[in-house]
Amino acid sequence: MEESLKQQEKEHNENEEIKEMGQLTLDQGKARHKIHLLSIIGEIEGHESLSPNAKTTKYEHVLPKLASIEDDGTVDGVLVIINTVGGDVESGLAIAEMISSLSKPTVSLVLGGSHSIGVPLAVSTDYSYIVPTGTMVIHPVRLNGLVIGAPQTYDYFQQMQDRITGFIADHCFATQEQLEKMMMNTSMLTKDLGTILVGNQAVSEGIINEVGGIDEAMRKLHEMIEESKESEEEA
């Protein structure tokens, strides 16, 4: 009876975590590794709240959770599922920096799309996958609202863009120059600058490690966890 109540409580907590933050702990696999599933979906919300009807990823939820994961000795690894249209640059980079600095093995899987600031998020993990139909859109930084046409404004745009391309280049095999060239491409998007990469194209450009789905991503993460545990034992 007590065991049944504990199981019901666990299921209730998991359902609430999925509902509120799109997160879940996976620990039922054969290897019995405890993996935290983090989903980054919709639009990355910044300091201003978006419409209640919009699907969003709230950085004020994700950042504390990532800190908790780092502090939790029972969590073995993190799987990041991504399907985002982009969003707030500062918040997206903050999440990407947090993921990249985790000491635990991390794997990302791009489903649907990983656009704009979603690109740094996709490459922030130790290893990355994209499904064959997944897309990545690389384009210059945009700001909403009134923009003052002064040299300082353009310098700020360039600085922000350099931060993004610099982070991406540091976490994948594509160079910063290569990324900037894709950003300024005028031949692909009819009303904008940028480049769309589909599935294997993202791998060919050196941004994503491999084409694959949830099976490959989970298998890779379990392998990385085993390698990490072996290294700790040897040390």
Structure description:
By secondary structure, the chain is an alpha/beta fold. Helices cover 45% and strands 22% of the residues. The protein has eight helices and nine strands. It has helices at residues 2-21, 59-71, 89-100, 118-123, 151-170, 176-183, 200-204, 214-234; strands spanning 23-26, 35-45, 56-58, 77-87, 106-114, 127-130, 135-138, 195-198, 210-211. Strands 1, 2, 3, 4, 5, 6 and 9 form a seven-stranded mixed β-sheet that branches. Strands 7-8 form a two-stranded antiparallel ribbon. α2 packs parallel to α3. It is globular. It starts with a helix and ends with a helix. 35% of the residues are buried. The model has no long low-confidence stretch (mean pLDDT 82).
